[in-house]
Amino acid sequence: MSPERQYSEEEVAEIFKRATEDQELAQRQLPHGGGLRLAELEQIGKEAGITPEYIARAAATLDRIGPISPPATALGFEISVARTVDLPGPLSDEAWDRLVADLRETFQATGEVRHDGSLRQWRNGNLHALIEPTDSGHRLHLRTLNGNARGALLGGLAFFAINLAFMLISAFSAGMDPGTLLVALLSAIGLCSMAVAAYQLPRWREERARQMEAIAARAVELAGAPPAAVLAIEGGS
After folding, report:
1. How far apart are the first and last CA of the chain?
2. How many domains does the structure of the chain reveal?
3. Assessment of whether the complete model's pTM goes beyond 0.85
4. The domain containing residue 170 runs over which residues?
5. What is the mean pLDDT of each run of 10 residues along the chain (237 residues)?
6. Residue 130 phi, psi (nearest 5)
């Protein structure tokens, strides 16, 4: 077996230059404002080594996902997770009861169930599931807000700022006495509270997103979608 070829610095530069030019050319050739049909996407994916089935599944997922609203933030950190999915039909009373059971098991929370006309809701604190009718069918909204993280971030910042102000006033007026050191310690506690909340948020958001994907797929199944549609939702997670 012959050794793999090594490219010189000049050849490396030329390769990346040509690749960049080819990519820009391909982007300019896309229909302006018209987009591409699924068959065209599948052909492009096939040329790139992607099986058409996965292209179709990804497209089906995108078709069912509703508009994504901007997440709530605190000090620049995202503290909410939301998921919206169009259902293939309404949920019967039995199907809704089964979905509520799945919600309770998934999130380990009893929650409260409400019926407001054609709306069905399940709520547990800041965790909320809502099914509403739309012009084209029904839609499931899932959303949650990490109130503890918001409190830790904003409260920690306030705690830090107040104690820092007292520490600076005490240091300038009386020097670094034991009281000033205590205030400095309290300021550090505020910073630690913020750091812990910021560290835990990504893992919390990832877990909630995964749980919502499972609930969304279950809702599509209970609403009478064929197995292929359910696989498309699960494949989008």
Report:
1. 41
2. 1
3. no
4. 148-199
5. 65 70 56 65 75 71 58 90 88 92 95 87 94 86 93 86 73 61 73 89 94 91 62 46
6. -135, 130
